[in-house]
Amino acid sequence: MPAKIISGTEIASRIREEIKEDAASLMEQHGIAPGLATIIVGRNPASVSYVTAKQKTAKDLGFYSVQEDLPEDVTEERLLEIIEKYNNDPKIHGILVQLPLPKQINENRVLYAIDPDKDVDGFHPTNVGRLMIGEARFYPCTPYGIQHLLMRSGVQIDGAEVVIVGRSNIVGKPIAMMLAQKAKGANATVTLCHTGTRDLAFHTKRADILIVAAGRPKAITADMVKEGAVVIDVGVNRIGMTPEGKAKLCGDVDFDGVKEKASAITPVPGGVGPMTITMLMLNTIQAAKLTI
Ligand code: NAP
Asked: How far is the first Cα of the chain from the last one, in angstroms, to the nearest whole number?
């Protein structure tokens, strides 16, 4: 039987409704509107479209939001000044610097300058460390979205064999750490694969839950997946243009083949993608509540 499709679009939309209600009651009870500052350097089309979507979502949810558009040749010093301004602005609870940054700017120095209590991307070492010891304040948005997708789809995570392909700091490593915690929505046995993994298929075929974040189109084919597995495809690969001039996307999983074998699978687009922005909003409202 073909797999159930886990729709990130639908789950994200339900979570946004919950956030909207939560934001309204935060305003009613405490007079606080969650505040998000997004900072973009240059006009990289993908970055512009991500930041525009983040700003639009924040406004739709009743958040206070501001955007800084900085020129491609902005200095690191100027960018750090702007971060400091928002670190000290009580109306702003979350600061997001859109990556990548141009090469004259040290990305880590910028991310580490964000007040950890306003680090709604969850990339500051303080928050990474807190996540590691099971005391997370903010989870990075994509891994957080994956965990919500699994939980809200009723997937049994506790005790499951989870295999993750990809060990980036923004997806693979944090989702591994999150699902390995002794906690609700976690407590799995986790295997983390990468290009040094000797026999990738040996591991992927053992997975009850397979999470793929490799950035390689169709890296996972049906013969690498166990019958009945739940497959989360994080990959977003641009593989050409549609006749309407939009980017044509595919994931890291051969969707058509794998859906015949898996019990549930996320599509690309419409799977993990819509969850990432929603989790940014969830982190922002959590940051606002820290100030009460
Ligand atoms: P990344 O930094 O490029 O890391 C890719 C990881 O996959 C690396 O750890 C690499 O191993 C591993 N890998 C690559 N090819 C492999 C192979 N054939 N076998 C085993 N491991 C392999 O990637 P990322 O930033 O995590 O992003 C991964 C994908 O997710 C991309 O397509 C990206 O666009 C997408 N993404 C989507 C969202 C969303 O919201 N939907 C968010 C973030 C990322 P090594 O470490 O050994 O090099």
From this structure: 50
